[in-house]
Amino acid sequence: MGDIDWGDAGGWAQAIGNFALWLIAVITLLRDRKRITALEREAAENREEQKRAQARLVSAWPDEWSAGRVAGRCLNASSEPIYRVVVRVFNEGARPAEPPTRAHRRTTSIPLMRPKEELPFVVADGGPAGQANAVAVDLAFVDAAGHMWWRQGDGTLFKQG
Question: Which fold, 57-160?
Answer without folding.
Answer: Immunoglobulin-like (2.60.40)
